[in-house]
Automatic annotation (TrEMBL):
Belongs to the drug/metabolite transporter (DMT) superfamily. Small multidrug resistance (SMR) (TC 2.A.7.1) family. Gdx/SugE subfamily. It comes from Nibrella saemangeumensis. This is Guanidinium exporter. It is a multi-pass membrane protein. InterPro entries: EmrE-like (IPR037185), Small_drug/metabolite_transptr (IPR000390), Small_multidrug_res (IPR045324). It is found in: Cell membrane.
Amino acid sequence: MAWIFLILAGLLEVVWAYAMKQSAGFTRLGPTLVTVVAMLASVGLLSLAMRTLPLGSAYTIWTGIGAVGAFVVGIVVLSEPVNTIRLLAASLIVGGIILMRLSSAP
């Protein structure tokens, strides 16, 4: 169950990052509220996952899901530029997430 909590927490990190971008510096109420709620839920789920998962693994995977997810949302939804170096960087993060998961106890 801890891994499910961790994945959901990482996905919520993507939600709050996107909502924060849409909040225009917290000047728009709707996206600001989504940001705050998603942040709290993300950290709450991370804390549940950390009851049984190692700190280093849980935190690394949580931030990795958020980073790569925000990268993908930026490209797909916000039409941010994509180039070889950015794709390589995202690939390295995904590789790190996979290795961290493989090194963690089940």
